[in-house]
Structure formats: structure tokens, C-alpha cells
Design brief:
44% of the residues lie in helices and 4% in strands. By secondary structure, the chain is mainly α. The longest helix has 19 residues.
Length: 234
């Protein structure tokens, strides 16, 4: 699939999610940055969108921030969301993911403001809490929101079927290489580090029975943007 077509679908996915999320009742406000850590994950498609934004705005110097923070320990996923879905279908246990990584600040955070807010990845867009994280020490997330977020993660990975999913820092450092970026643009097989999982198509949507009816309007909007591989239901 052409990279520009992928980016267009990604933008439409973001628009659908924004229309949904604006109706949520949450405690999150501008300047609240407790969740803005270096543990954010994203696809290569989302990383490519960020990279092109940095080029167009003359901000490639931000890669100095990324390199400076690359030595810090961070969450690095070992499987993708759709790989998790496949394991669930096979009734197999997924590998344990480390959940106690340090919460170092995101390299794009400055004075509690996101420096790439217009092109932030979905992992940032979807994190909402019904209580103040800093005051209570943790987030409180509605179960239906978790389902919706998971479905969007599955579709975004599906769109980027030829790409990778990893920590934001790792994905951006991967795309910094002109050779690797060119391979990605041309949908070529990527010579990727073994530590970054490869995206896969949706085997089945991870929607629990109690949410299947409620999520249908969202799924219809997603299907209307003509995702590849036909219609996919819960």
C-alpha cells in the first residue's frame, strides 16, 4: 500500500478517535503530563508521520533529544497487539511484558507541553483518566475505553502491516537511517533489529461480548474509510 495512502487512513483514524474522545468525561487537562513518559509505543507509520513533521517544520534537531535519552531504560514491547490477538485465538499465554519500567519524561516534553502535539502517536492520544494521576498516584480508565483503544491499536497496526511496532525512541532512531526509511517508504522487507516486533494483520478484534454492541458505531466508521483486507468485525 502506498505510504501516502497509509498516512491518509491514519489521519482519518485519528479523526474518528478524536470525535469519540471529545465526549469522554476525564480529569486530563492541558499541562497534565504525568503520563508523558519515554514508555510510549508506536508503529513505524506513526513514527514516519512524526519524522516528516520534523522535516517540514525544520526541527530535526529534536533528534538530539532522542539520542540523549536513548540510554535510559524504557518499555520495549516483545509482541504487537495483533500478535496478542492471535495468541488469544489459539488460547495460548502471551509472553510476560515488563510493566515496572522507569517513568523517564518523554524526550518531546518541555515545561509539561508536548513539542509534537499535532502528530503525537495514538499511544499518547488514547491515554485518558477519570482521576488526576499525579494526585492519586495512578490513572483510572474506563473498561469500554480500554476496548476502544485496543481496537484502534489493532487497526493502526493493520494499516502498517509491512512495518514495525516499538518504543517511540527505538522507532524514530530506526527511521533516522535514510536507507531504512527508504526501504519502509517502498514497502520493502525491513532489515530491522530483532528487538522490534513486526506488525501483522488483524486476526480478530479483541472485543469482549459485553462491548460488542456498543462498539459497532465506531467499527462502522472505521470500515467506511476502506481499510485493506475487507470488512473486519468484532
Amino acid at each position: 500500500m502506498d505510504i501516502l495512502y497509509k498516512l491518509d487512513i491514519l489521519s482519518q483514524m485519528y479523526d474518528i478517535y478524536e470525535a469519540f474522545s471529545t465526549r469522554l468525561s476525564v480529569a486530563c487537562v492541558r499541562g497534565c503530563a504525568a503520563c508523558c513518559t519515554q514508555n510510549v509505543t508506536m508503529t513505524t507509520l506513526e513514527g514516519y508521520r512524526i519524522f516528516k513533521h520534523l522535516i517540514s517544520t525544520g526541527q530535526l534537531n529534536f533528534f538530539q533529544r532522542i539520542h540523549s535519552s536513548a540510554h535510559q531504560e524504557r518499555f520495549q514491547p516483545t509482541i504487537t497487539t495483533n500478535e496478542l490477538a492471535a495468541l488469544c485465538m489459539q488460547e495460548e499465554n502471551p509472553p510476560e511484558e515488563a510493566s515496572n519500567r522507569p517513568r523517564a519524561a518523554c524526550p518531546f516534553l518541555s515545561n509539561n507541553e508536548c513539542l509534537i502535539y499535532p502528530v503525537r502517536p495514538f499511544g499518547c492520544r488514547c491515554f485518558f483518566s477519570t482521576q488526576e494521576c499525579e494526585k492519586n498516584g495512578c490513572a483510572d480508565i474506563d473498561l469500554f475505553l480500554i476496548t476502544v483503544n485496543t481496537v484502534f491499536l489493532q487497526f493502526i497496526e493493520h494499516i502498517d502491516g509491512s512495518g514495525l511496532l516499538g518504543n517511540m525512541t527505538d522507532v524514530l532512531l530506526f527511521l533516522e537511517s535514510e536507507t531504512l526509511r527508504k526501504q519502509y517508504e517502498e514497502n520493502a522487507t525491513l532489515n530491522h533489529p530483532g528487538s522490534i516486533p513486526v506488525n501483522r494483520l488483524i486476526p480478530r478484534l479483541l472485543v469482549p461480548p459485553e462491548h460488542r454492541l456498543r462498539i459497532q458505531p465506531i467499527l462502522q466508521k472505521i470500515e467506511n474509510i476502506m481499510l485493506p483486507q475487507g470488512r473486519l468485525g468484532a
